Structure formats: C-alpha cells, structure tokens
C-alpha cells in the first residue's frame, strides 16, 4: 500500500515534468502579472539571485496587494490573542458546561502552539501569492513551523469536483557531495539548483480510505522515503476555482486590464515628463552674438551679446496638454485599481465635506469585492492546519490520546472557523450596533422592554474583538445578583424596623417614667418652684 504514490514504470521527476508542461500558459500568465505588481512572487523562469528583477513603473498595484493581504491576514488571525477557531460538538449538539470549558481550554492550547512559530509571515506570503498568482501551497511541519511553496515548485491533479487527488512538489535538501559552481544545471521546471543542495521529488496520492500515500525520490528515481499520512499536512489553495481546471485564477487576473493600463499610462507619463523637462540654450546663427563667448563665459562675466540673438527651446510648451491628459488618465486608473484592492482612500471623493457615513458606505461596498473566495480560503487554509496541529500534539503527548478518536471523521468533536469575511466588516458592524442602541433607547417603554439586551451586549463586545463571556452577564448571573440585592434590602428594612421599634419603646418608657414622677407627692410643687426660678425678674 505504501507504494501507491509510485509512478508505474516511470519516475516522479518525469511525472512532474509532464504535469508542468501542461500548465506553461498558467505560469507565463502568472509571471506577466507578477512583473507589473510584485515581481519576486513569481520570478522569471531560470531566474536566480544573481539576476535583477524587473521593476514596475507604478507601485499602486503592489501597495494594493500588500494592503489587501494585510487586511485578510488581520481577519484570519486577529491580533486579540483569541483563537480563530473553536471546537464544538457535531450534529449541532450543545456541549455541557464542563465539556464546554474543556473544549475552550483545548482551543487555546492548540492556538498557542500554532501562533508560537511563523504563522503570520507564512500566511501573509501565501495570501500575496494567491492575489497575484492564484495558487499556493502551505505545509505545517512537525516542529509546528509553516512553509510556503511557490506555484512553479509543485503540480496538482484534481477530480471533477475540485478536490485534490495528486500532489507533487520539489524539496531541496543539503547535498553531501555538492557539485562545483561551474557544473550547476538549470532544469525545465524553472528551478536553479543551488550549490550544496539537491532536488527531491515528493509525490502524494489520496487513497480510497482518505489516507495520503507519500513517496520521495531523487532525480534518478531512487527511493528516498515512503509512507502515509492520516492527516495531510498540506493546504493547496486557489483564489478562484474554475470548473475542470487544476489551478485557480488570481485576483489580479480579474483586473489585469486595469493594472496593465495603469502601468502603460504611468510609463508614458514618466517619459513625457522627462521629455518636457529638457531644454536647450540657443543662439541665432545670423546674429552678432558668438556662441563661444557664451559657452566660455563665467557666471556674472561681461560679454558682447544681443538679447534678440539668444533664446531657449523646450518641448514643455507644446507637451503640457498631452501631459495633463495623461495625468488625468493615470489618476482615473489609480482609483480603479485602489478600489479593487480595498484601498478605500482611492474610492472616497475629493471634497471639503465628506461624512463618516459616506466613507463607511464606500468601505462596505468595497468589501463585497472579495465575494466567496475569501470564505473558501479561510476554510481551506485554516481547517487543515488546525487538524494537523491537533494530530501532531496528540503524537507528541501534548493532548490526551483518548481525544484523538473524537477528532476523527466519525468522532464527536468538530471544528468551526470563527474568522472570515465577517471579520473584515467588524468596524461597520460596530457602527451598526451603536446605531441600533440609539434607536432602541428612543423607542417607547413597552417596545424597549421586548429588546434582548443580553444578545445586544454580546454582539457589541464581539464586534470590538473581545470575548463576550468575560464582559456580559448571563441571565442566571443577573437573576442571582438581583435576588442577593433583594435579600440584602430586606435585611436592611428588617434591621431598620427593629431599631425604630426599639427607639419608640425607649421613648414611651421614659415618658411614662416622667409622668409617674410628676404625680408623686410634693413633685408638682418642686417643678413649679424650679420653673419660677428660671424666669427673669419682672417677667410675666
């Protein structure tokens, strides 16, 4: 079974070269797009570090790709130190409280393992390649580091549905007996075999039991290693999937006309501005002024010359209308390309008064450009990486082996990616939630009482990127606090009533005692004499 990945009667190198020839037009198209955006994402064939890459005249497309890749990365892996996935029970079942706490702790454990390495920079490179080339492969290695594989370093075969069934990529390992520098060879695959390294051809074929069978050979066809993977460590991604095609279509390919037009206009503008900046000092050939006198004179020196004999010739006087038209065309194409890459500053009108709502509406409109491609990338990239990480952690003993069965296809634990296209519009969602709160506060009391404030609080905290469970009280907690407050208030009322009753009893007892003393024999005359002594003399 382990030899399933072997090519019958041939070598993996020949199989790679055969499949590579079928997608020559794909690679040429990718190299053309890369040459006017970010050239190092897909360099020319047989390129090495000793050659220079072409530099585009316009950097708008390159900055747009970087901007869009950064926004996508921020949505895929937010910077709030919270997992971008969660473990749930399959079939829509809700886990008991104890099990839910365990699943949350497990998700944080897996996330810490993934984020401890180079996940962000590798995913950023992968997203850039998807935008420019349309295809990229990402591998999670056994030490939890990520590796990005360029499209010209691998070939694939997919079934009619689009699922991957065969994958061959190049791997470069140190050579114990390196060839001298003069003997280095250039291969048809566009790979320059550097000194001290040799190329290994790795083939993976999916079996009927969802197990991936692997085989590695050198270029002579000698077996280096074979085996199988229960959980495939690769994520072979495409930007836009096309029916009956093994490879995808890039984002830049959709707007290639705009990018190419901007490149041509920018080049024409630079060349025309360079031409307009030239000038020539001229002397009339029929005048009395000598050219040698002007050329040899120092600054401020006296010379014999006539003003009418000297003049300046510059093409700027006649080229300014053309330059203005070219500049207008360049600005127009810059806005088009900026909008395509969600650079909202390029889509906001230039005016003295631009409202925040207008800016937000432009952002919401541009976010729809991504469509379903982004959600598919989030699923196809993150799910295999998390599954492979869990498998590696179980193998390393970081996770209990008993949980391994629950993560299988017939297990009870499933995986949900909680970042995606919605994460790109968190700012707009936050604004909508704030507007909703203002509207509900202005509603009549009966209507506001029907509003679910707990759900509103959860959505508001989630839009800010925090865990709502740490900030929003549940109904049970709120009821418990209300009951505690009611009990405390009742106790205070009882204590107040008891104190008031005791005071009334003491006052009544004192009053009765004084009354009894007043009725005693001789006490009335003593009280009368005392009051008369306190009155002033002559007082009535």
């Amino acid at each position: 079974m382990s030899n399933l990945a072997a090519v019958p009667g041939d070598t993996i190198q020949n199989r790679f070269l055969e499949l590579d020839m079928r997608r020559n037009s794909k690679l040429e198209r990718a190299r053309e797009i890369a040459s006017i955006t970010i050239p190092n994402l897909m360099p020319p064939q047989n390129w090495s570090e000793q050659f220079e890459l072409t530099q585009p005249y316009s950097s708008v497309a390159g900055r747009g790709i970087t901007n869009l890749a950064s926004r996508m990365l921020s949505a895929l892996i937010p910077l709030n130190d919270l997992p971008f996935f969660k473990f749930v029970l399959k079939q829509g079942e809700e886990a008991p409280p104890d099990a839910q706490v365990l699943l949350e702790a497990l998700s944080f454990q897996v996330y810490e393992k993934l984020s401890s390495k180079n996940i962000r920079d590798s995913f950023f490179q992968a997203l850039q390649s998807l935008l420019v080339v349309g295809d990229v492969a990402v591998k999670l290695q056994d030490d939890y580091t990520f590796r990005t594989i360029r499209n010209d370093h691998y070939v694939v075969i997919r079934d009619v549905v689009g699922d991957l069934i065969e994958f061959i990529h190049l791997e470069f390992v140190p050579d114990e007996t390196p060839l001298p520098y003069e003997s280095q060879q250039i291969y048809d695959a566009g790979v320059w075999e550097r000194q001290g390294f040799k190329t290994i051809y790795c083939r993976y074929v999916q079996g009927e039991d969802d197990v991936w069978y692997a085989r590695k050979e050198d270029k002579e066809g000698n077996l280096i290693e074979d085996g199988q993977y229960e959980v495939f460590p690769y994520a072979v991604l495409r930007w836009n999937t096309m029916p009956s095609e093994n490879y995808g279509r890039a984002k830049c390919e959709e707007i290639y006309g705009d990018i190419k037009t901007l490149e041509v206009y920018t080049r024409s503008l630079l060349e025309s501005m360079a031409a307009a900046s030239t000038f020539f000092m001229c002397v009339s050939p029929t005048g009395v002024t000598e050219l040698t006198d002007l050329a040899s004179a120092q600054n401020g020196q006296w010379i014999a010359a006539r003003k009418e004999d000297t003049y300046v010739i510059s093409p700027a006087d006649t080229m300014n209308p053309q330059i203005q038209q070219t500049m207008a065309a360049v600005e127009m194409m810059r806005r088009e390309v900026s909008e395509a890459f969600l650079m909202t500053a390029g889509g906001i009108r230039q005016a003295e008064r631009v409202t925040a709502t207008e800016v937000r509406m432009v952002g919401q409109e541009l976010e729809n450009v991504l469509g379903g491609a982004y959600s598919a990338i989030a699923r196809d990239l993150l799910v295999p990486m998390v599954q492979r990480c869990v498998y590696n952690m179980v193998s390393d003993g970081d996770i209990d082996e008993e949980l391994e069965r629950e993560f299988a296809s017939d297990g009870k634990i499933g995986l949900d990616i909680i970042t995606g296209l919605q994460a790109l519009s968190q700012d707009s969602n936050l604004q909508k939630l704030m507007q909703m709160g203002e509207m509900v506060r202005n509603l009549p009391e009966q209507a506001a009482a029907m509003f679910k404030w707990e759900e509103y609080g959860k959505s508001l905290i989630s839009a800010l990127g925090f865990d709502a469970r740490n900030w929003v009280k549940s109904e049970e907690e709120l009821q418990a606090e209300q009951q505690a407050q009611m009990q405390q208030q009742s106790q205070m009322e009882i204590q107040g009533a008891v104190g008031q009753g005791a005071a009334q009893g003491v006052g009544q007892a004192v009053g009765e005692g004084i009354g009894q003393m007043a009725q005693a024999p001789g006490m009335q005359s003593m009280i009368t004499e005392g009051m008369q002594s306190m009155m002033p003399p002559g007082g009535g």
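The first helix runs from residue 12 to 22. Confidence is low (pLDDT under 50) at residues 181-192.
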